[in-house]
User: What shape does this take?
Amino acid sequence: MEQETAPRRNRARNSCAWCGREIVESDIGRRRKYCKQSCRQRAYEQRSLVAGSSIPADAVVLSAGEADDLIERLFRLRCAAEDIATAVDENAGKNELASLGAELVALAKEAERWR
Assistant: This one.
């Protein structure tokens, strides 16, 4: 009689709850929420700061500089998407579209890091 083994989880990819970096999960243990200890600590500090205040626990507070940086990343992302739309309208070649698509993906990953 063959012995059954527990099904292994597929290696899942998710993002750090604090900085947005990609986390590659291992096959054992529970899923990680933060990519490193410093992100876990920053999240704890923020939760502690809003405890007992009227600010919701899940609120995101950004400095003016962080907000400006996020706006800039989103603007660059939109420009890259517009570049692809223009290239499609102009019947650009496969290589050019692939290059523009790769740039769009890179900018989207950068924009995900909102802290």
Q: What stands out?
A: The first helix runs from residue 37 to 50. Confidence is low (pLDDT under 50) at residues 4-9. The first strand starts at residue 13 and ends at 15. Helices lie at 37-50, 64-89, 94-112.
